[in-house]
Amino acid sequence: MTAPADRDGLVRRLRVLEDKEALRCLLVRGWRALDRKDWATWAECWAEDAVLEFGPWGEIRGREAIREQVEEAEAPFPSMQHHILNTHFEVEGDRATGIGYMWFVAVTGNGAASAPYSMGGPYDWEFHRAPDGGWRLARQRLGVWWTAGEGTGPETALQADPFR
C-alpha cells in the first residue's frame, strides 16, 4: 500500500506534468491559429493584460493591442508556418515560465517561386492560470537572431537580443 506522503507527492508530480502538457497545447493551439489567421482563437491564448516584447516593436500591452499589431504585421503573408522548438516549462502553482525557439517561415506571394521569408530566435514566456482553470500567456519576449529570404530589409534586420 502506498503511504499518504507518497501519494501526495505523486499527485503533485502528476499535476505538474498535466500543467506542462496544457502549456504546450496552449502554444500549439495558438500558433496553429496564427497560421490560419484565426485571430479570435489566437487572442484567447493571451491574458487580457498580457505583454509582448519584440525588438522591432518594443513593448505592446494588452491582448487586443497585441492582436492588432501581429495581425497587421502578418497580413502580407498568404501562408505561414510558426514552429515552436525545444520548449521547456517550469510550473509553480498558478504561475509558469517557459523557453523555446521560434522558426517562422512565410510565403511572400501566392505561387511565388522565390525563397520564402524566414526568421528565428528565442522565446521567453510567462503564464498564469485563468479563473476558468486554463492557462494564458501573460508575457512573451521574442528575440530575432536571424532572418533570410524576401522581406529581410532594414525593418526586419537582426535585432540586438538581450537574452542571447
From TrEMBL:
Entry-linked Gene3D superfamilies: 3.10.450.50
**What is the protein's name according to its record?**
SnoaL-like domain-containing protein
Which residue windows are coiled coil?
A: none
Q: What InterPro entries is this protein classified in?
A: NTF2-like_dom_sf (IPR032710), SnoaL-like (IPR037401)
One of the Pfam families matching this protein, by short name: SnoaL_4
Q: Which residues form the SnoaL-like domain?
A: 16-139
Superkingdom of this protein's organism:
Bacteria
